[in-house]
Amino acid sequence: MIAPIGGFFERHDPEDAAVGASVLETWTGGRAWAGFVNARSAFAALVESLPGVTIWLPAYVCSDLVDPSFAGRVRFYPVGEGFVPDLAGVEAGMAAGDLVLVVAYFGEPVAEAVEAFARRRPDQRIVEDRAQALHPGPAAEDRWVLYSPRKLLGVADGGVLVAPAGASTVPQPSGLADRAALWRAADLRHDDPAGRDNAVWHAANRDKEAAMAVTAQAMTARSLSILSRTSLESLAGPRRANWRVLDRRLRRWSALPGETQAPPLGYVIRLEPEERDRVLRGLHAERIFAAVHWPQIAAPAADFPREHGWTRELITLPCDHRYGAVEMARVAERVEALLA
Ligand SMILES: Cc1ncc(COP(=O)(O)O)c(C=O)c1O
What we know:
By secondary structure, the protein is α/β, with parallel strands linked by helices. Helices cover 36% and strands 14% of the residues. Helix 8 (232-250) packs parallel to helix 11 and helix 9 (273-285) packs across helix 11 (325-339). Residues 38-40, 61-62, 64-65, 103, 129, 131-132, 148, 159, 212 line the site of pyridoxal-5'-phosphate.
């Protein structure tokens, strides 16, 4: 039986002799921070601390981020080709102190358009959402930063909110999450490397994700411990190398312009909707668990047709640290075969 490739992360066992800065050190970099059970809760806590301000979100972002408690304050801005945000409407319509969320899409640094906007409008608050990004580079000093570690390595939960440099207070969680419920799927998969009980751990993870909600709960101590004992480079290096293996064979379908130094979320391809669905089904049938970021977005389809188009066109192929050249060759070969 060939082991599955991709999908949610089994529990990560950090190496004994980790080299270089840990994931947690790299992300927090001496700034004030808070660890919630997931990123949507961390974001909702930040929003709650800013009553009355307008929340500007990219039209291309996962729908889980928007909580009903602040949905009435949300306005969307468009995202153009290449996943470049168009902030002209924000700049024209915003008031001083508004909260503007920008996404480090697929692990890449945020577009230069964001940096230019930040320089022109120092009166805003920017949150850089790095839920898909392991380390696109040091975060700008004036910026809030958000991470969702379970999308990137084998922890069951977590939403890390990092304050701008010099800020001393960050909204903090209160209360503990249900550790056993959160960790069940990651432990089951960890104990089943060949994937014999695939259906069991897949169902456990689906249930866990379905139960994810906006709460004040803290990240589990176990996730925190893994983040502080895992070296960032041990994850980043393999991601970059694997991405290159896929790029050598799949470039013609790539949704992104080219290589950067940032460790990627996955290898993102863009296809016609029907072909996308067919390729995704074909890969899943062979237990290559490619993902879709995102099948649902919060912005209304009528106002944002391009962004809605991406929900039907994109596939994120796995290229994370669990795999090497052999698995990547298999992924590339299967994608080529399905598109032949
Ligand atoms: C860009 C982005 N931000 C935030 C979130 C929410 O993260 P969490 O599931 O940890 O609440 C997601 C979820 O997919 C996401 O893709």
